[in-house]
Request: fold
Amino acid sequence: MAQIELSGIERVFTLGDSEVHALHAVTVAIEAGEYVAVMGPSGSGKSTLLNLLGLLDRPNAGTYRLEGRDVTTLTADEQAEVRRNRIGFVFQSFHLVPRLTAAENIALPLMLAGVPPVERGPRVAEALKNFGLDTRANHRPDELSGGQRQRVAIARATIMRPALILADEPTGNLDRATGQDVTALLESLNASGVTLIVVTHDPVMGGRARRRLMMEDGALVGDLRADAASTA
Amino acid sequence: MTPADTLRFATRAATGYPLRTALMILAMSIGVAAVVVLTALGDGARRYVVNEFSALGSNLIIVLPGRSETGGVGLGSLFTSTPRDLTVRDAAALLRAPDVQRITPLTLGNSEIAYGGRLREVLVLGTSADYLGIRGYRMALGRFLPREDLERASSVAVLGATLRDELFGIEPAVGRMIRVGDRRLRVIGVLEKSGQGLGMNTDELVVVPVATAQAMFNTNTLFRVMVEARSRDALASAQRQVEDIMRTRRDGELDITVITQDAVLGTFDRILGALTFAVAGIAAISLAVAGILVMNVMLVAVTQRTAEIGLLKALGATGRNIRLAFLAEAALLSLAGALAGLALGHLGAWGLRLAFPVLPAWPPDWAVYAGLGTAIVTGVLFGVMPARRAARLDPVQALAKR
Reply:
């Protein structure tokens, strides 16, 4: 049994009186610990797929089994619980809460999960140390560099020790050097066993993934494994 | 999310936008302060009037000539027309009632008082010896009117303290002859300073026997008869007896009005209490406006923080978490506003007391609690809609917004 099993996923948006097939007949299985890049031109449905995988969106048809459980039929609160415990998000624009410090931003998922403050402190301190942020703990996002912000975001995504990390253009707002740092950080998390799914249209980043899903007009048009792919 | 965390998160959100929060608190506090100050003013007026009436004495029944209405005591019964004279004989007859202890007739008129070339306008009160005891006044010098037949017009007078000072200065007054109107009277006493009582300043009064005053003003009727019941409990039966006696004396027709101090007091108490209530109600409108402002501010906050709400949802926040966080924020804003308003209102009431020392302008407890309660309830109530809107946001669209 694969960690993620999508079969016959359809997602249709209605814009005015026309229907847009954002996802069409998507069937794919992803094993635990895989490193997958979802690639394709803009509007090809990459982000919609990622939102669906992250339970932020529901398909119009098809089933999504996460760790053997059909999650498409769960209630909103049950989905929130799955997101809280099993999934970590990393966004292109970081999405840090501007009025909270780095440490508080990292602690947000723990707070939402109802972890008591005494337990939160050591876990946040450890995360800050692991991500090289211990000197920035009490800085607010506007006092951090882009790379530091994304590291805070990744620390936040991993603080609940999720099984799956979903990253939407995680290096899109960063310069080349910091982008590489962040990529390396995500890859090291993947090396420790976490499934990593990255949406990108940067071929360099996509090329580093061991598996690439190519999308076009809402459909999967290619599924390339690293051994078969050329490292461009 | 634990309640403590929800509260902390809401506090951070409120303090994260200081200008917005300050304006919100200001609006709410003005509403609460308005309630506190206006009720303090209304209740102060009520207490002032009640105190004035209490100064009259406790077991008093007041008989006045004429009857303008048949039921209850209203403000109108204080100013009645006079169909038939209320005479000194009538007053004396009231002493026959078993529950009546003392009576004193009252006649009032304006005249001139003169001594040693000094002349001034003066209010003349014609009454009897028991007036002193019934009103609870004390003599500063000499003695009060002699106990004698009510129809005897002795040529004596008792002066108010201020009047004495003005006429005699440092000279002794008792024993001197003064002129009041066209009569020469001997000063037999001076009243102790007592101040204002029901708009009649006793300190500027000259008190003469009732018959003297009636002769002076060429009248037979009395202005009032004050009747003192044996006790507070006997007040009702004394009132009935007074009415019976008067009815008998007037061939079965009751053309006088009998009021008790309690009834007058009760009426004023009710009128001014209702006035305070109405004023509080008007002030409460500003609280409703503040409530709508809370809603407006929270709706703006939801729009402002759409991306944040999307993020929280992505991090696993349930709709309930988000609803509670926004509701807690609205409640905190209202609470802070209400407390600030309470402080502001008490400051205002203190200012009022400072500016008008005779007015005991303390806000009544019920108004304080009602003001606080309304502020918090409206704040939370108007916070529900924005909070629900936040909780219902679609996370994908919310995250896409920046």
Observations:
- The longest strand of chain B covers residues 100-115.
- Chain B touches chain A at residues 1-2, 4-5, 9, 12-13, 15-16, 307-308, 310-321, 395-396, 399, 402 (CB under 8 Å).
- Residues 261-304 of chain B form the longest helix (44 residues).
